[in-house]
């Protein structure tokens, strides 16, 4: 992405992150409009920002209040730099409030907070909304408790909320703008049009961002990072991300790439056999399968804390990769020095270090095993070519490299596997066997009903509770299992899937009739937020 941005100098958008849950969405929307966009931490040094030669800098929203002591702010002399280089600045929510505060206006807690859908009315002839189709009452999404009450010199109100609050501000001569609402969320009905107006009319940016560019630039970057003689290992899971990453690196360095698939004992029904056969027959990638199931399961015995589990799995993966590297060293006479992983942008965002660590403003949700769970003493250097991309972008990249479409449509499966789908101790009783069977029935039923592709992810969860049932006139005291199916764009937010009740009834009957040890099925009807996709 760094290289990609270099090529788009003058047509790049830098998003400065102040911890909003929507920062990634801003980056994503801009890229969907064909413009190169990168996200940096809010107080990134000016030199880092300048290295992207942005035409537009967007300041994200955030959970803090600008008047709180120690709340995140902009790097020193930020506006001197943007004005001197005629760079446009757009603040969104917290970003707007920051502009107002830093430039000498006044922000204070609002008497009535605005959360959810609101209406705003642009001021006719404003630089932001013009006199055309956007100069009409707009239905927007707000989420703020503070408000700007006094604007800095040179600023005017560009739109007002129906409650009389400020909806947008502007200072066109200095190219500084602010929106109190969120144009990036779909609930702001004409949000995309507003972003287009800013990118293409206010900033005159050219839409020259294409997936083909990412492919070519990543190939060059991988070649220069790994060098002409070094070897790399790729941790291949059978999932979309690592397969696309492996295909990319294989294109870049050929047989110096050595793929390893780890059977950690936490895989789905017959997953090992299926994955190995697909790699060989359809993808033609050389892969070694390492059976480390006993090691993983013995380490996990008795571990019940979700974060503990994730960190332990992260450590065991790395140990396994290190051992594989040693084995290769004996065979090749040279030790591989790089580890390729299919880490995606959402993995990175959600594993962000907590505020106060000086590394990020968002909260840690859970440590994705391949990001937050990695040990510090790791010997292999990481190569993560998909680190800046979202899932749908990775699927497009895969298509460009002719990875079979059926494979690219696979539902995501987390690296810690069934360990985060068995609540509590993974090794309890028959939990692993039970969850494998239920999951297989559920997924096959989805495929048979033609629903698999319209669902982003579906799976079963083993609940460590026993409930009373009656089966064959006998009392049973067996496990309850939960089913989860969600729709999502990128796994960052999700909604539960509304099945026809008959479908759920059929799956429930099939499971209780054929899986020993289960007498109750529940269906998870929680979106993300407030829940996450996986239960741990
Ligand atoms: N069983 C495994 N063997 C080797 N590497 C693994 C395994 N499971 C996960 N990994 C590594 O961890 C990374 C993250 O896993 P994750 O499940 O997010 O991605 P994926 O499996 O590649 O794609 P998907 O999200 O579609 O399942 C993988 O890209 C891969 O590098
Ligand atoms: O590579 C991964 N390593 C992990 O540790 C991990 N945990 C969750 N997931 C997957 O990420 C998406 C969002 O999941 P959550 O809402 O549960 O965080 C969903 O698609 C999850 O399946 C993981 N992927
Ligand atoms: N969404 C936001 O950026 C909120 C900004 C600030 N925390 C407020 O409540 O006003
Ligand atoms: Mg996976």
Automatic annotation (TrEMBL):
Swiss-Prot/TrEMBL keywords: ATP-binding, Glutamine amidotransferase, GMP biosynthesis, Ligase, Nucleotide-binding, Purine biosynthesis
Pathway field: Purine metabolism; GMP biosynthesis; GMP from XMP (L-Gln route): step 1/1
Keyword Secreted assigned: no
Superkingdom of origin: Eukaryota
InterPro entries with a match to the protein in the record: Class_I_gatase-like, GATASE, GMP_synth_C, GMP_synth_GATase, GMP_synthase, GMPS_ATP_PPase_dom, Rossmann-like_a/b/a_fold
Keyword hit for Nuclease: no
GO cellular component, one term: cytosol
EC number(s) reported in the record: 6.3.5.2
Listed NCBIfam families: guaA_Cterm (TIGR00884), guaA_Nterm (TIGR00888), PRK00074.1 (NF000848)
Annotated protein name in UniProt: GMP synthase [glutamine-hydrolyzing]
């Amino acid at each position: 992405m760094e290289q990609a941005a270099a090529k788009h100098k003058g047509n790049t958008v830098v998003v400065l992150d102040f911890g909003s849950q929507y920062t990634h969405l801003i980056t994503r929307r801009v890229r969907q409009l064909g413009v190169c966009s990168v996200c940096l931490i809010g107080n990134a040094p000016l030199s880092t920002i300048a290295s992207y030669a942005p035409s537009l800098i967007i300041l994200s929203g955030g959970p803090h209040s600008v008047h709180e002591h120690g709340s995140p702010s902009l790097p020193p002399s930020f506006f001197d730099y943007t004005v001197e280089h005629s760079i446009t600045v757009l603040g969104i929510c917290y970003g707007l409030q920051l502009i107002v505060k830093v430039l000498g206006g006044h922000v204070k807690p609002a008497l009535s907070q605005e959360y959810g859908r609101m209406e705003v009315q642009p001021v006719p002839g404003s630089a932001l909304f013009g006199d055309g189709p956007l100069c009409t009452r707009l239905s927007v999404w707000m989420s703020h408790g503070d408000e700007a009450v006094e604007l800095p010199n040179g600023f005017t109100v560009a739109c007002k909320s129906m409650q009389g609050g400020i909806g947008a501000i502007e200072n066109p001569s200095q190219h500084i703008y602010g929106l109190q609402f969120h144009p990036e969320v779909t609930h702001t009905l004409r949000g995309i049009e507003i972003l287009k107006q800013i990118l293409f009319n206010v900033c005159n940016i050219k839409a020259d961002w294409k997936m083909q560019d990412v492919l070519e630039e990543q190939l060059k970057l991988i070649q220069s990072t790994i060098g002409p003689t070094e070897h790399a290992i790729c941790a291949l899971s059978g999932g979309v991300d690592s397969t696309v990453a492996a295909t990319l690196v294989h294109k870049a360095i050929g047989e110096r790439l050595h793929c390893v698939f780890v059977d950690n004992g936490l895989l789905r029904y017959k997953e090992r056999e299926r994955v190995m056969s697909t790699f060989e027959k359809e993808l033609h990638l050389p892969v070694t399968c390492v059976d480390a199931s006993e090691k993983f399961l013995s380490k996990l015995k008795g571990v019940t804390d979700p974060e503990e589990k994730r960190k332990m799995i992260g450590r065991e993966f790395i140990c396994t990769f290190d051992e594989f590297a040693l084995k290769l060293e004996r065979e090749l006479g040279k030790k591989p020095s790089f580890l390729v992983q299919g880490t995606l942008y959402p993995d990175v965002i959600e594993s962000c270090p907590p505020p106060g660590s000086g590394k990020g403003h968002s909260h840690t949700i859970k440590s994705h095993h391949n990001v937050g769970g990695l040990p510090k003493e790791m010997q292999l250097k990481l190569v993560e070519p998909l680190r800046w991309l979202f899932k749908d972008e990775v699927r497009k990249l895969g298509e460009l490299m002719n990875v079979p479409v059926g494979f690219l449509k696979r539902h995501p499966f987390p690296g810690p596997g069934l360990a985060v789908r068995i609540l509590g101790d993974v090794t309890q009783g028959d939990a692993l066997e039970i969850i494998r069977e239920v999951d297989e029935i559920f997924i096959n039923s989805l495929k048979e009903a033609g629903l698999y592709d319209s669902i982003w992810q579906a799976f079963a969860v083993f609940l460590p509770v026993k409930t009373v049932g009656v089966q064959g006139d006998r009392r049973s005291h067996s496990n309850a299992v939960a089913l989860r199916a969600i729709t999502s764009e990128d796994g960052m937010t999700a909604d539960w899937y509304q099945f026809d009740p008959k479908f759920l009834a059929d799956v429930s009957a099939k499971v209780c009739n054929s899986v020993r040890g289960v007498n109750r099925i529940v269906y998870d009807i929680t979106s993300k937020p407030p829940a996450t996709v996986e239960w741990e």
